[in-house]
Each structure stands twice: as structure tokens, then as C-alpha cells.
Protein 1
Amino acid sequence: MAEHPNQLEVEPAGFALARERSAGGPSRKGALLDRRPGAATRFFTHPVTLRIVSAAALCLAWQWAGTVPISPAFPTFTETMAALWAMLADGSLFAAFAITLQPLLIGLVVSAILGVAVGVAMGLDERAEWFASPIFIVAQAAPLAALIPLIVFAYGIGLTSKTLVVCIMAMPVIVLNSFAAVRHTPVSLTEMGRSFLAPRRKVISRIILPAASPVIFAGLRLGCASGFIGAILAELLITPTGVGDIITYSRSIADYPSMYAAILSIIVFSVVFIEAIEQAEVILFRPEKRASP
Amino acid sequence: MNAPIALTAARPVTDSVVEVRNLDKIYAGTVQALKDITVDFPRGQLTSLLGPSGCGKTTLLKIIAGLLPASAGEVRVNGKVVSGPGPERAFVFQDFALMPWASVIKNVTFGLEMRGMAKAEREEIARRSIARVGLAGFENRYPHELSGGMRQRVGLARALCVDADVVMMDEPFSAVDEQNRRKFQEELLTLVAQEKKTFIFVTHSIEEAVYVSDRIVLLSPRPGRIAEIIEPDINRDGDTEAIRRHPVYLDTVDAIWYSLKTYLD
Amino acid sequence: MIVFGRRIPMVASLLLWAILWEIIGQLQVTILLPPLSSVVMRLFEIVPTASFMSALGVTAYAFIVGNVIAIAVGVPLGILMGRSVIADRLFLPWVNLFLSAPLTALVPVIMVIFGLGQTTIILTVVLFAIWIIVLDARAGVRSISPSLVEMAHSFGANRLQAFTRIYLWAALPEILAGIRLGVIRAVKGVIIGQLLVSIVGFGALFKLYGSRFLMEHFWTALLVLFALAFILAESLAWLERRVDFYAASRG
């Protein structure tokens, strides 16, 4: 990992994942932790034990907070699970997801293709960078959600508007990560390509793009996370459909367990979805990560 | 200390593969990296470019490789003026420049593939080249699974298998630990003796330069110019271990140190 | 970009975009996009008004309070996670989950519990900002060189001294990076919160402008918001570069 040329901390957003990743490595402050634990201690500090403890603690805290209750609008964990089960059993949750996923998937595919293309073009060509990068740098920092009312004026309350919301949320980070990834291709790798007589086209396809792909994928994952934010926001703000409809409707009739269950399901779904993209990346594009040492 | 012994003067070169004539390199319009470099690289020999950091030795190497344009003057390889990289030259990079997503064999075949050679043929050649540098059995490993020394062997195999007349090495052993470096240096001597190739070798280590070189081009910094050209008169045919105890080796190292000391701040 | 040997600064392209905007606006291609010049004229007219200033004030208040809470909770939590394996294993999965979760889905929960008001917006800001702050503070502590910690102990520093004199400072570059990223996320959080609550600050203004179809007003508010967000992000990045020498010298 240390030698991988692309574990750069690049754009504000690419940063987050790269950092998270590097921090996941072996701890460098071993000296501090160098106590020799007994068997019991080892069991209690084992990662799996602690993960289960952590999940159980959260569920228990939720259950307790719902039993008190800390708020009339706070159902217990078991009530929420029951509601989730009911929605799964009668298929309403699947129907809602089918609707929510439409703008989300269309928006993500469009953003991914367009965003990577624009970002790579900016990385390869200084004129493209000059022309487009200030727009995306501003877009990355700006609260683009404020554009939603305008999008509704322009495109109504249908699928187009919701897809556009997903696009404007997801695109900047994808563009900026792709740009930075291409721009930070190690010079010695491109020199290697030239010195072994690769034409420009081959240098791009065989060296620059593969070298940039980890950071491009980090951008895609961040873009997906933003796209989910956009999709839910669109459903809550423009017209309640899909999962947003369950949330809005159950809130209006004070059916809080259903509301919480819908929210929980969309959060879990997004986390699984982003994890799946990461797995797909490893399977399709990272032979060196699959190789056994 | 005693006065430095006289260095063995360079003989005129009769058969040179690479000729550098009145080369200047100016960066960003102001920084003069190289000034009026004229030097020949004799066929079948190993010539080192040696000097302190900032003397432009890597710049000179990259201009010969066709990776950087010269500001003035010219470089000829086999009599033809260099305008970019060419098939008669191969490069070994300081940081190895291996593609992390590609296996050892894919890295080694890269140059052959760019020349349009068929897959079976290029893999056959690459396998021989990989075995030549002592990495047989590692063909399907990935760079991150190899040590620094092994990675540089991959870089070397890649440069050898395109069968170029000139192999250029940019501080190839600087990222390798001391023990491995010594082993590399010994192997390099065997390689030079066996392959009928011309080697151009950049280093900042005086001992390394004297140990491996038939000819040493000493560069002085800011701007980089040729200070001296030395041909250490050491017989390298016998025991490679004995060279480091050879009186000429020790004297030459000493003399170069005296010569370079004047350029240090 | 270099044209005819002259370097043209990056921001100059924004000027080009502004001209493009003006032309499209003047051509009246769409009623949604009034010319930039009329938006700028409107800017001088409505920015000083009481309703605009109060929207700005309410937004700034929620934004600042939310960030202060996120930093005050996030940095110590991150340092704790960096120091203690148990705390790390207990919290890290959740921090990672919330970092990439669609947080907009949680805003309705905050709304039903805390009502449609400032509290909800402040909590939305916290929700958006805190996770990256925690993660970066954790990464900062984990990257402290062991010799620095050993130095502190060998010179007799106690736990509190080690924390305030070593950990906080040695991890500062990463902590600041986390705060910068958190603040950028918080900008989005405060606007998303206001849009969803829609009776506070810019959320209310957008609703008003939208219902009366005041496009110039709308664009003015957008322009002000985007400019403020951009200036904020850039000045934080500038500040961060100033302490970057730490990270460099720390090696």
C-alpha cells in the first residue's frame, strides 16, 4: 500500500476515504499499547466481540430510549423492527425502493460517465482545466441543495427533476477526484511509458487511467454517497415518492415505527450499495489486491 | 593527509555509441542545469555520471533518453540525432516505475508490447529476461509483494528484454539497502561483461561509480559542467570481491573525493 | 492556462462563465435565468433589507453553534478513539457508517423529535459535520510518532500534560483538515436543514421567492450563499496550509 502511487490525499473529498483507509492500517503507536493481555482480556478486546458489543449496546440504548420514552416520536428498537418486518412482508418496502432507485440509478450512471469524462479531460488538458475547474471547485464547496427549488421550476416534480438533483449532488466530487487522480499520475510512470515507446494514446489507456483508477473510484463512492443524499432530499422536498413517501406519510399519521424503519432501511441500503461498489472495483480492476501474498 | 594521487586520464574514444555535443539545458527560462556538455560514451562499456546533487546528472541522462528536450546542442545515438525516446535505448528508473496493477511479467513485457510483438513471443523473451535477473518463479507476483531489491530487478529485466544498444540507469540502487546494493553492483559487472551493451549509469556514490565503471564522467554543480573524465585502471575480469581492495580502486575513490570536495557548500 | 506565452489565471474563466450567463440572460432563453447584471443590481437592493439580513443571521447562528458542538464533541472523541483500542472498535463502525450514509434521511427524525425550529437545524449541522472531524482527529493521533510520546513520558509528563502538550499539537494538522472538511459539510447541512424545515432562514426565503416567482431574488440569494461558502472553504484551506509546516517537519 505504501508504494501505491495513488494513495494521495487529494481533493477535499477524496481525502476522506484515502485517509480513512490509511488510518485503518497497523497502528504506529505500538509502544503505547504494548501490554500483554490475559486470555479474558483478549476475548473482551477482540474486534469481533467488540463489534457485537457495540451493535448490541446501540440496540439496547435505542430500546431503552424508546421505552422511557425520550420523546413521543421515538419508538423502541423492537417496534421499529416489527414495522420493518411488516413492510418487508407485504412488499411495500420493495415497491418503494423500486421507485426511489429509479432517479438514483439513472442519476448515478449519468454522473459517473459524465463526471469521470470531464474530470479526466481536465486532468489531461490544461485548457479544459482552466475552463471547468473553477465551476466545480465552487460547486464542491457550495450548498447545491439550494438549487432544488429552481430545478423544480424548470423541470416540474417528476423523474427528471429528481434525477437532476442526484446529478448535481454527485457530480462535483466525481469530477474533482478524477481530475486530481489524472493530474497526480506519478511522473516516472508516464516517463516509463514514453521511454518504452508507448504512443500518447497508450500512455493514457495503459498507464494514466489505471494509475488514476483508485482515486477515481474513491470519487465514485463519495459521489454515490452524495447521490443518495440527493435522492432522499428530492423525495422529501419535491414530491413524496418511494421511501420518501413512506417517511413523509408515516410521519403525518404519527406511525413512527414505520417512519424509522424506512429511514433505517435506506441507510443500510446505501452503506451496502457503496460497499458493493468497492468490492466490484477490487474484482474488476484490482488484480494486485486479489493476489495472495 | 597526503596530496591526492593523479587520476588516470581518459583515453580518446574511438567507437562511441552516444555522442553529446555542446549540450545546454535551461529550466523555466532561467535556471541553467547543464552548460556546454560534450562527452562520448564508448560502445560496450559502462560509463557513470557522477556528481553531487544539483549537478544535473539525471537531467543529462533524461536528455539522452529523449525524455527531456535540450535547450541547445545535440545528442547522437549510433550517429542519429535524438529527438525523443527510441528503440535503441532503454531506461531503468530510480523509483523502479513499475505499474502496481500489473504482474511482474506484464511489467516486463510492457516495452515489447508497445513494439507490437505478439503475446506468446514477448512472454517467452520476458521469461528469459526475468530468469536472467534472478526472479524466475516470480512472474505472476505483483510489485507490492516484492522487496525493493526485487522490484529493481523487474525494472532491469524490462530494460534488458527490449534488447536496446544502450541501457540507461538513473541511480538504480539508491532505494535499495546497502547489502543488496553491493550484491547488485557485483551482478552488474557480470551483466556488463556478458551483454554486449553500453551502460550509462547515474550515481551520487563515489564508491559505487569507481566499483562499476569503465569510465567516470565527473560533473560539477550549478550549472552542471564536466569537471573531469576518469578511467579507473582496474582489471574486472577476475574476482569481483577483490576490486574493493584493489589499490587503484581505493586511490581513485580518494582522488575523486578530493576533486568533488571543492564543490560542496 | 498559457495563451501566447502569457499565463491566464484560473479565476479568469469564472469571468467567462459570468459573461456567458449575462448573454443567456439577455437573450431570455429561459425565464429561470435572469441576466447576471440584473441579479447583481438586485443584490444591492435586497441584501441590506431586514428579512435578508435576519435570514443570514439565523443561518450563521445555526451554522456556528452546530460547528462548535461538532468540534467540541468530535475532536475529543477522535483523540479517544486514536488512543484507546476499545473505544476505537466500539465507535469506528458507526463513524464510518454515518460518514457515507444519506444523512438527509435522518433529518425527519430530528424534526419529529425536536420540532420545526432552530434546534433541528443546529442538530442537522452537527450531524453533517461531526463524522469527518472524528475520523481525522483519530487519524492525527494515530500518526503521532511514538518517539514523541516516549519523549514526553521520559521527561516525566503526566497524562494530562501528555494530552495537552503533545497529542493535541502533534495531531493538529489532521485535526484542522478534519475541521475544514466538517465545516464544508456543515454548509450543506445547514441549507438542507433549512430547506426541509422551510420556515427558517434561507429555507423560508426560498419558499417566498419561489411562490412569487422572484427569479432575480432567488439568484441573488444563491449567489450570496455560494460566494460565502466558497470564501469560507478557501480561507480554511489557506489557514490549514499555514500550519502545514508541522506535518512536513514531522515527517
Note: The CA atoms of residues 133 and 174 of chain A lie 12 Å apart.
Protein 2
Amino acid sequence: METVAPTVLELAPFSNVLVEHNLALTRDSATTLQVNVGKLCNLECQHCHVEAGPDRQEVMEKNTIDNVVSFASRCDFEVVDITGGAPELNPNLAYLVSSIYNHVPKLMLRTNLTSLPDKKYDQLINTLSKYKVVIVASLPSVSQLQTDAQRGNGIFEKSLTILKKLNEAGYGCKNSGLELDIVSNPTGAFFPPSQSAAEKRFKSYLDRRWGIEFNNLYVVTNVPLGRFQKWLVKSSNYENYMHKLADSFNPGSIGGVMCRSYVSVSWNGFLYDCDFNQATNLPLGGSKTHVTDLDGPPMLGDPIAVSDHCYSCTAGAGFTCGGSID
Amino acid sequence: METYYNPKDLPKFTDIGKEAPDLAKKFFEYYTSVFKEGELTEREKALIALAVAHTIQCPYCIDAYSNACLEKGSNTAEMTEALHVAVAIRGGASLVHGLQMRKITEEVSM
């Protein structure tokens, strides 16, 4: 389900803009290994660049997990960031967590909060808290209408239920040592708010209305790939959105974009500079590389593969998979 | 000219400074300062601007501040409530002038 970008009139290719500004996008030290354990998901969110969903068959198998763990042991990553799809739907998730735990100081798991029945979440929370895994939960908005419009009917209520459950287990609570972060994506063809202002508002609103606590909020720009790109085209927003991203290009953001320090591995073990390049099948540095091919992390100064979706991470203050750079 | 209002004209707002650059510079500096976070957040200021935009019925402003409100983290329910504040004041301003009507009619009536 590779995405082919429609042409946008009068949009300079991202690579040309780098040349115009005398910039080159090259690798810094690789500090984070992002493991995409599969495209299977219970939801079909409108903004999903992966086009994850219930019918997707691509799920990381145990032998690939072993290869990924072996790769992590050969590198000196600071963080392993587990994503999907819905990672909880990979039957080998607990195996991955327990196997990779000893090779990295920090583990993160991205969750849509809704992929498992409540009782199964209890088991998962036990596993995650045992390994002090940081939970990064998706919640686009404190508005039920906005959240459900992006993620599906009833998702807002279900998300609140699981957030409360996570709080009960100590996640997001002071001095528990269990970190709960929230990621917010815009619910349409517009940019996210300032991260600090949004965090203040989410904290106050979630606490006041539902008594929910969390540690950090990250805002992320929607990337015009996959299902989000299709929605942009269908809703006649694609042209404007692409120009808005390009018009907001900030040369100063290049130093901090995530692809400089991330390595992204797909469900079948291939490497990419970031999850967005993975979604559009643009391999690491431009050449197809399997996780078993490398003795260590990508070299400092190696070129990063770019395309027009890169405008998303360089707009304004700049964004990364972990939120706004500012 | 096919239409008085064209969305593509909005980004050209600064062209207004071509004939009077000093005045435009002062205006845009003031404008930018007004919308920065102060005692009110940028989000709150955008909601006020949206309500005022509807009161003065400016298509450019409604376009700009509908998007600005979303990008400051507001949702349609909040934006609609802000609009009703403007509507209430606008409607109330008409209604309260009914006191003038009453005073005048009382003066000339038996």
C-alpha cells in the first residue's frame, strides 16, 4: 500500500529547497531505534500516515524481533520506541519488551489506548510497568467530537477509561517512576498549537473534568502520506496544505529533525531514516538495508533520504515524531 | 473583477504597505504584539478575534481566525460559543436601544 504523492502545482521539491539554503540533511549520532511492529490496528484513523487498520497483515514475527534485538545489542541506542499500527496487537510484544530491555536505557510504547479489551490492558500494564516502559498515548483533543472525528466513534470515551486505568497503576502520577505522555495530532488540515500552551490546557482540562494526570504532551504535525494524504486530496485540502507546509519551511529546524538521530525498522526488518520514509518506502539513505546487514548504527554524516513529506518536520519551529522542537 | 473577495488575496495583506510603508509597519508591529500571549493566552485572543470577525462580518478575518482558533487548540464547540457571545452583544445592543424607543414614544404619547 505504498503512497504515490499527487503533484502539487508550483511546489519546489524539498531537495531543491535544501540546496537553495545551502543545507544538507545528514545523520547525527543514532540515539533512538523506532521499531514498527506491524501495520495491524483496530482503528483506521483519518490522519494515519501508515494506513494501519484491521485488515493489514504486516506484523513483525519472532525471528525478526530477534534480529532487531540483536541489532540493538550491536548499537548504543538511548531509546527504543515501539510503534505500529497498534503494537498491542502483535502477539510477541511482551517478548520484544523483555528481550530488548537489557540493551537500552529507555523503552517507549506508543498506544492508541483502545486496541485491547479492558482486562487485557491490565495484563499489558503489568508487563509495561515491570520494565518501566514509557507509555506514549494518542489523544488528539480534549474534545470528544474532534477526537472521534479523527479516530472513530466512541474512541474518546474508551481512551479516557484506559487513561484512568493507567493512572490507577501509577502511570503519569508524581514520584511513581512510571511515565505517561500524550501525543496530539491536529484533527484536520491545520497545524498543531504551541506544545507548551497545549500541554498546559490538556493538563488543566483532563484533571478538572476527569481527574486524569499525565507527564508530557507532544504535538505532532500531520504528515501528508497514507490515509491522511488521501483525506487531504478527497477534501480538496491537499494543495493548500502542501503550500502551507512549504511556505513555513524553517532552515533552522534542520538541525533538530528526528531523522538525524532515529533509525526506523519496519515489521519485516528493513531500515529507514524515519517512520514517514518507511510509510512511503524510501529506505535508509536511499538504499534497501536489512537490520541484519549492519554491524552498528548508521554512520555520522551519512545522507538522509528526503521527499516532499519532509516539509512537515521543517515547518515553523519544526516537529519530530516526539513532538515540537521548540 | 469577478468577486470582491478572493481567499488568495488574504496572504497579500502586507501589500497594503506599498503606498504607505511607515504606517503599515507600525500597524503590523502593533497587530503582531496584540496577539502575543500576555494576560490572555494566544488561544483566548484568537477566540475573541473570531467573535469580532463575525460582528464586523469580514470574510478575510473569519477565514484567518477560524484557522487560527484551530491551530491554537480550540474546537468548533468553543468557537461557536465565542460566536454566540458576539451575537448576544450585537443583539443586546439592538435590544437595549429599545429604551430609546420607549422614551421617545412615552414623550409623545398620551
Note: The first helix of chain B runs from residue 21 to 34.
